[in-house]
Structure formats: C-alpha cells, structure tokens
Write a structure and sequence with these properties.
Helices cover 33% and strands 25% of the residues. It is built from 15 helices and 19 strands. With 433 residues, it is of the alpha+beta class.
C-alpha cells in the first residue's frame, strides 16, 4: 500500500542532522540566586527540600526565548483545534471509542489542558494534548522566584497567576453549583505521596486553603461514597481536582468516585469527557485527516492550520505492518491512551520485538518532529538539550507558556540542567516581553 502520511511531511536531511530552529534560544542563570529567592518565597523548608534536593532536575538551568511569531502560530493552532472540538460531528466520532463515563455531559469544562509543541524548521507542530497537564503552579512559583532575584526582567504573563488558577477552579464549581459556597476540595491521585509532582499538590493545597477551602491530598481508595455524598473520612468533598491517569475512571477501585461523579454528587475536574474530547491520541488522527475534516464541514483555513500545525498521526493496524516498519525511522509510536511518555518509542530506536508488541496494542504512529536543540553550559560544561513547549489552556484561552528541557527520546526530568523553564517571548525587534 502507499504511505499513509502526507507528501512533504518529512525532511530527511532535517531529521538526520537535527537542524536547529533559529526562533528559539536559551540563557543560563545563577541557580543559587534564584533558589535563595525561592526559599524566601516558599517559607517552607520541607517543601523547598522536596523541590530542589529531592527533585534536582525539576527546574532547568535556563530561561527560554521564543519568537513572538512562533507563539502566535501556536495559539492559532490551538484556536483551530478548539473550534473543531466543538463540532457535533467531531464529538460523535471521538465518543464512539470513548469509555461509557465520557458519555456523561458535565457542565464543568476541565482545568489545565496542556498543548505540547515541538518547534520544527517550518514552524510549531503540536505533538499531543493532555487533559490534566501538571506543572502550571510550580512554573509560576519558579518564574516568580526568578523575577524576585532579578534573573528575569520579564513581567509574568499575568501578575497574579495563582489568583487566575483559583478563579478557574471557582468557575468550574459554579458551572455545576451556581453560587453555592465551595467548602472542600480533594486533590486525588494514586499514591500521591509517591508522585513526582507531589510538591505541586502541596502548593495547590496551600492555595486553596488561603480562600479558605478545606483541602486534602488523597488516594482514591481513601474516598467513600455514602448517603449521596463523597467522603474523605468525615469530610464531605465538594470538588475533586483529578490528577489520576485512569482518565475514564474505569478501575474498580475508583467506583466510589465514579458513582459520585455520574450521580452529580461531586464536581470532578478534569473529567472523563474532557479527556475523550481532547486528549485521546486517536483524536489526532481525525485532526490530521483532510478528508475527514472536509466531511465534518471544517472551513478550508482551519483545515490548513491543522494539517500544517499538527504532527500527522494515524492508528496502527496490523495490515500496515510492512509500510510502518519501512517508515519507522520517521515515526514516533505512542499508546492511544498513554501519558507521561510511558510506552512511547521513536521508530529509529525500536527493535522488532517492540514493534511486534506495538502491533498488538492500541497505538498511534506520528510523524517524527525533531525537538529544537541548543547548547547550554551545565556544571561548566557545554551540553546539548532538547526542548518542547507547553501551553496551559482553559476554555480555549492560554494561561501560561512553559518549556521543558531534556536529553533522550522524551521529557524525563532526569537531565542535569534540564526541567521546566520559563519562556520569554521575543518581539523580534531586540526587545523581550
């Protein structure tokens, strides 16, 4: 059969040589100065140690500068995607393979969608959407420390992002409950004390309690649904900030939470429908298929934005074995319901054994968009680091832009000098904003 990918998707020389994008560069800074400001800002030695000593590669040694035109193009792509997601024809398609819980229609929208981009030589390319993207609050905290230390002169995208985030959770609550008071929030994840992003859970707990809202961080097994109320011990839970990676709430252990959600006894954000509409990676096969887009009535200018701005994606089928294996060096393989790069493979690094396993699983194959690479001085030595950009989005509006620096196939927070990095938007006129 013919290649399932569009002509012109790949630039073989670019893929092999790792051509670098001229619209992005890094600037290193003095970590000690920033960490001192961070310590003063937190005023919490335990949390500071968790962030800096226990997770030494959570924050990068650099600020990232990105051209304004690149940022503008990313936001045009996001707006185009959001417009398609609202179409009944699109929703009918993606809900056909979604879990039963996604058929339930809540009024809440879902917090912290994460649109992840690589900067290719032809412009930004979306590689995936996440429905419960982590890192927003720790990024704000670190950016504030950089400004307080004088490391960054750029005002943050919003001066009071913590308040913006809080207002978002209140908006989610009010969408379901009107003007009823919000008394309690549970931040829920499996074994939260063992999660890498536990410090962010603690930061959110502090934020919520300032308002004041009773807040607990808990495993879903600690929740009980009785007498029409979701309970954590003796505390009735009004809202769940959902950090679980069982996006459909399908596991048996999640039955109390699932039942409370479906019976409208608790507000859950983000929720299964949000994941189904936005973040299932099979959705990208629809958003990058021109025939399907045309059949759904998507306007020509929107189709162009999607086809140029999203890495083309197809579902992996056994009947395409020969074609996919032949094209593997130009592909990236991801589980349709994957998260955190788990089970994802670059085709040029893949063995036949792994490929055979992928053919048995529920995978998509995506055009390989090489990440931007730059050199940065780490421990007095120049190292090559890759970069991706994450746009944190709520109701189609970008709240925050962050970068992640890393080495290897995917972001990993294990790279010396790597981690989350503040993004400064360059106007292209020698001035930054």
């Amino acid at each position: 059969m013919n290649s399932p990918f569009r002509k012109g998707t790949y630039n073989e020389s670019t893929q092999l040589t790792g051509e670098r994008n001229a619209d992005c560069h890094y600037m290193s800074f003095n970590r000690e100065t920033v960490f001192k400001a961070l310590s003063q800002q937190l005023n919490d030695d335990f949390l500071y140690r968790m962030l800096i000593e226990d997770r030494p590669h959570l924050f990068a040694d650099a600020i990232v500068f990105v051209d304004q035109a690149n940022i503008r193009k990313q936001r045009d792509i996001i707006a185009a995607i959001e417009s398609v997601i609202m179409l009944p024809a699109y929703q009918q398609r993606v809900l056909a393979y979604a879990p039963e819980t996604a058929q339930f229609i809540p009024k809440a929208h879902g917090v912290f969608f994460g649109y992840d981009f690589h900067l290719s030589p032809k412009g930004p390319q979306l590689i995936e959407i996440n429905s419960n993207a982590g890192g927003a609050l720790v990024n704000v905290m670190f950016a504030n420390a950089q400004m307080a230390s004088g490391t960054s002169t750029k005002p943050h995208e919003a001066q009071n992002m913590e308040q913006v985030f809080m207002a978002m959770f209140v908006e989610e609550w009010q969408a379901e409950r009107g003007l009823q008071p919000l008394h309690s929030i549970a931040i829920v994840d499996e074994n939260p004390q063992g999660q890498f992003m536990l410090p962010e859970f603690l930061l959110f707990k502090k934020l919520f309690e300032q308002y004041p809202i009773n807040t607990v961080i808990c495993d879903p097994a600690e929740l009980d649904y009785r007498n029409g109320t979701l309970m954590h011990k003796e505390l009735p839970i009004d809202l769940v900030y959902n950090r679980l990676t069982d996006f459909g709430l399908e596991a048996k252990t999640l039955k109390p939470l699932r039942d409370a959600y479906l019976e409208k006894a608790v507000v859950v954000t983000p929720h299964p429908r949000a994941y189904a509409l936005y973040a299932d990676k099979r959705n990208l096969t629809i958003l990058t298929d021109e025939t399907i887009l045309r059949d759904m009535g998507v306007a020509a200018e929107i189709r162009t934005l999607l086809l140029e701005g999203i890495a083309q994606t197809i579902c992996v089928h056994k009947e395409d074995t020969e074609t996919l294996w032949a094209a593997r060096k130009r592909l990236f393989f991801k589980p349709a319901k994957g998260y955190g790069s788990k089970g994802a493979y670059r085709g040029d690094k893949m063995t036949k054994r792994v490929f055979a396993e992928i053919l048995q699983g529920n995978y998509v194959a995506q055009s390989l968009v090489q990440a931007t690479e730059r050199q940065l001085k780490v421990n007095h030595k120049m190292v090559d680091l890759k970069l991706d950009l994450r746009e944190y989005v709520y109701k189609g509006q970008v709240q925050l832009t962050s970068a992640r620096l890393y080495q290897g196939q995917t972001t990993n927070f294990r790279t010396p000098g790597g981690g989350f990095a503040q993004v400064v938007v360059s106007t292209g006129s020698g001035r930054d904003q």
